[in-house]
Design brief:
By secondary structure, this protein is α/β, with parallel strands linked by helices. It has eight helices and ten strands. Helix 1 crosses helix 2.
Amino acid sequence: MRIYVTKDYGEMSRRAANIISAQIILKPDCILGLATGSTPIGIYDQLVEWYEKGDLDFSDVVTVNLDEYKGLGAESEQSYIHYMREHLFDRVNLKSENTHMPDGRIADSGEACRAYNGLLASLGAPDLQLLGLGRNGHIGFNEPGSVFEKDVHCVDLTPSTLAANQRFFEAEGSPMPTQAYTMGIRSILRARKILVAVSGADKADAVQKVFFGPVTPDVPGSILQLHDDVTLVTDEAAYSKAERP
């Protein structure tokens, strides 16, 4: 595992974006696994800036996203497809047919999971998977539990995750969904390379447990310790409680 400790969120975003841009330049038709939430916004802004300068070309890139809220589609400003269009898809020359994510509009959980599992299998392993990290150590929406969920599945969001994400729904006055479709642990670990971006003192406990604690489904992200090619890019605040290698 490679670890880069940066001064702040801005530097973390640039370092992580540089790793993604190198992947695109190395393999223009690469498959990128993408994440949502607050942390990746600066990364996507940096990638857009380089695209606008002519340094990056997304025309042959294929993307797959980790998750989507059950019940939400592109018409909802709180959906992750809307998030991706706002922060990346509509700002670069990605082809819409090359962007993929779970379909939150499918009410039948089994049908939705089978459809996305089939899509992921047909595309093959992502060349690079970007991940954020939840305060409880979750990756994607894989919440703490008694086992590691393997493939795409429907998850009941925990109170801590609901509390962390509720602010995105308050402005619209709409209730937050309590379930989501998410890639499972096996789906995530299929990626050839994994990039984890973390920022803020509120993630310091999670960084400590995920990267330096025991591997356990109680801390879903801890499974990343078993992957052959993981890069952690973190700011000093998020790394403040880590056990230095």
